[in-house]
Write a structure and sequence with these properties.
With 414 residues, the chain is mainly α. Helix content is 70%, strand content 0%. The protein has 22 helices and no strands. The longest helix has 20 residues. The radius of gyration is 26 Å and the shape is globular. The N and C termini lie far apart (69 Å).
Amino acid sequence: EAAHMAGDAAVALEHARRALKACLALGWFDSTERGSTAPGGARGCERRVRIVAAEALLSVGRRREAAAALGALNDAAESPRTLRGLAMCRDGSLEGSSAKDGEGCVAALKRAASLAPNAPRPLAELGWIMLRGGGDGAGARATRLLERAAELTAGSVPPDVDAKLGVARWMEKIGAIDGGVSAEEHALQAKEYALSRGPNTAHASLLNAASRVGPFQPLAFAYLARMYDAANDASRAEKCRARALSLDPADPIAGPDECAARGDDHAYVARTCRDALRAKPRCLWAAVRLAPAASRLGDHEAAVGALQTVLRSVPDSSAAWEALGAAYDALNRHSAALKAYGRAMDIERERAGLGSGLNGSGLTTNSIHPGGRVFASVRSGRIMQQMGAVRESIAAYETALAVAPGHTAALLGL
């Protein structure tokens, strides 16, 4: 349990496995794990070990196994901790989650909070889930829940609660700024709060979290950077982002913010994204940003790899397929480019409810919906013209012109 609290889930899982073997050796439960035969206190120890093992499984990404283990434990005896674990398994923000998962997550946390109204953990997790879910007043609701969780810790606020509370306070203040004000007024109001110091401010909570080692330390530095950006303190903002990325190169806040801050330096953006992908091979924000940066640097192979990573997470992105076609096109891999362009146009047709009009690499006049990808259509026409497929090439150019009359490349090709 100590290893898991320190953020080392793999070590925690190994220790939990050894503990369960010890329980088996002591005869506390049978080898089929159908039921415990331990005395009261020992049975509680065995259950606790199983909960830690399930939480560690979730932390290392084995979500289904964690959900099955926690579900069995919760069925045997409902508790705030097992409900909280189940909620994390159903977290709607995780990859592959549905809206129903998100609703189940909130319901489980509310149930956990009702079972233990003075337990800080369920309240903190519920506030965090609500904040990430967004919506009107999400920042204010999350702040109240997290402040209550902090009060219940009896003065020793865990770093993750401090980090979440700091983010919630910042989001509450930013969300409270009237959307009807000008951009200049919005920036001034954000700056005013960003400069606020002292207790019960976002800055204080984030600073506390940033000073303590743990899995939420990068988040604290990333949001401190945002606050310093709002306060026009570029030097501190840059240092905080750099610290966040040194702790977690794939941090989903600091990484995109750093790329945006250095947007014209394509080599730097590419290095930042590659570091993130080395740390987390399916890091979506890094793959999305590496593709255009690599293309501008002439590294089209890297762009292909990045776009393939994007499409593993978002297979129905017509823009990503079109960009993949362009990368193959730049490498003179024309057959692959045609397939990628074709998939981009097909997705647009499917979204319009017209079905697929592609057959291999050929096109017909009606094969692309007028809302389709113009670039993909023009480039497909160009490639097929080079391949001698004149009729299909004409159809592709005409389709592009139906979407964008007067498009120069389409007119020249036609």
